[in-house]
Amino acid sequence: MRAGILVAAGGAAAILVATVPASAFNSGSDPATYYGAPVRAIEAHRGWQGNEGIAFEPVGAFTQRLPDDEYDDILLNLVNWFRGEHQLAPLEQFEPLRVQSAIRSNQTADAATDSLPDKWYADDAVAACNPVADVISSSSVTDGTPEDVYLKWINDAATRNALLDPDPGAVGIATVEESSQFYTTIRIVHGTCPGGGLPYRVEPSGLPKPRLTVTQGPKGLAVSLARRGDQQQMVQVQRAEQWVWLAWRDLTLQPGARPVTVSPPAGIYRVVVPQQSGYATVFSDPIEIP
Predict the structure, then answer these.
(1) In a 10 Å sphere around its CB, with 0-12 CB exposed, 13-18 middle and 19+ buried, how is residue 9 labelled?
(2) Is the distance from CB of 188 to CB of 169 less than 8 angstroms?
(3) C-alpha to C-alpha distance for 242 and 212, rounded to whole angstroms
(4) What is the number of other CB atoms lying within 10 angstroms of the CB of residue 228?
(5) Residue 45 and residue 161: Cα distance in Å, rounded?
(6) Parallel/antiparallel/unpaired status of strands 244-253 and 132-142
(7) What confidence tens digit (pLDDT) does each residue in 250-289 have?
(8) How do strand 92-93 and strand 170-178 relate by DSSP bridges?
(9) Quick one: the chain helix, strand, coil %, rounded to 5?
(10) DSSP-derived 3-state class of residue 280
(11) For 147-170, what is the mean pLDDT?
């Protein structure tokens, strides 16, 4: 049994005496083993999403620090004590989801900030849990104890609300240390963990599709868009690189306006209009530029 933890909750002091298994979270001792297969699964899923018009981005390089098991065990126990005080079921620790939290924590530690963009967290969760109904992700940095992180979470409205979601879920909490700073990420998934294999099937959106026209001419690709309304649409030109589609250039098109011409170098390209403004994703056939 660990010693009592004094926490301030809602302005009052409370004593939490926590019994935590020695390895509720278990990151092992080899960073290459811990991160290797999950990174490959994430990148396989991101590559597959090219079928949905989403450009591929690799996970990228990060320092492979192993997360602190004991620190994160204490945080999990604090979170579940907080949920218990509100008559909610505990969150279940899930190490594959924690690996994704650890990747994010290492990225924030490398950048020395918890404010990095985190655009992939919901899509990446499918590599650990599938199907996924909802994903919550929150990162923080402190120079103190797990209790400091916990208090930061419950004093942040969005994170507090996520911790008080009545639905049970799986959780991955990962803390890494760099220069006496502790970088922590929590990810909570409501869905099936572990999940099915990759790739997974996306349900049709049921939305109408804009009419995308891409014409190849001597000056390059002329791109135009037609749909109801005059709200501008974001359009992306993507380039094929081996087995994935990479973003080449972003455009903004006015529906019904004259075509916009781009002149990409030699390669295979497609034009994608992501789902937006009440319209479904649509993309052109591949076009080869000699």
Answers:
(1) middle
(2) yes
(3) 25
(4) 12
(5) 29
(6) unpaired
(7) 999 998 899 999 999 999 999 999 888 888 889 999 999 9
(8) parallel
(9) 25, 30, 40
(10) coil
(11) 93
Residues 195/201/205/211 CA torsion (nearest 10 deg) = 150
| Rg, C-alpha atoms of the chain | 23
How far apart, in whole angstroms, are the C-alpha atoms of residue 27 and residue 139?
19
* Residue 269 amino acid letter: Y
Q: How far is CA 124 from CA 40, 43, 76, 199, in A?
A: 11, 9, 22, 12
- The 3-class SS string of 181-238 reads EEEEEEEEEEECCCCCCCCCCCCCCCCCCCEEEEEEECCEEEEEEECCCCCCEEEEEE
In the predicted structure, residue 7 carries a pLDDT above the cut 60? no
Q: Are 163 and 202 in contact (CB under 8 A)?
A: no
pLDDT at 276 (0 to 100): 86
Please answer whether residues 199 and 127 qualify as being in contact, where contact means their C-beta atoms are separated by less than 8 angstroms.
Answer: no
> What's the pTM value of the predicted model, to 2 decimals?
0.78
Tokens coding 142: 């402190």
Q: Would you say residue 195 has pLDDT above 70?
A: no
